[in-house]
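Why do we care about 3D structure at all? Because function follows from shape, and shape follows, mostly, from sequence. That is the central idea of this module. The next example makes it concrete: a single protein chain, its amino acid sequence, and then its structure expressed as tokens.
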Amino acid sequence: APTARENAMRVVRACQVSKPVLLEGSPGVGKTSFITTLAMLSGYQLCRINLSDQTDLMDLFGSDLPVENGSPGEFAWKDAEFLTAMQEGHWVLLDEMDLAPQAILEGLNAVLDHRGTVYIPELGRSIVRHPTFRVFAAQNPLQQGGGRKGLPKSFLDRFTKVYIEEVSPEDLLLVCRERFRGCDEDVLRAMITYNNHLNQEVVQRPTTIRSNIFSI
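And the structure:
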């Protein structure tokens, strides 16, 4: 589809720079699926991490955990997915980036800038990122979704920001024609029209939905 192709070209161009890439677009536009596909085609393992206001640094880097079959009170350090990917050169997708608390942003600073390191106090050493390690982040526009806050400009400067355009009805029709060859085109058009109308009401005009619900 033309819009998807243009979105892909923008992300691929952003990857030419050695900075992390931040994808912004409406819910359901395909940010996560695109990075998943890109990682698969590029031969990289992708680690996807969903962020929220409850995410802690130990969820990214790791923590001391009880040793399985160990003696009572025996603990050992266990790397979290982000730290493992950082050391082994995998790709990481941080979903819902604008929901992350300030502590997460501060913890990621040294990883994302020119230093490329993270200091683990429990281990008493700094860990340097692998040369092929790459970070992608995804977020919805600020006005879409509750609890969202704008990321600090100093943090945004760590990223190359790419806006992901929504696919048009023509794009959807092209995809549906290929996927559902036996389906009547009028039915496909009606389904696409209904889907677009629902998207406008739920995503673009949420206050209208709320007012309608309260009036029932």
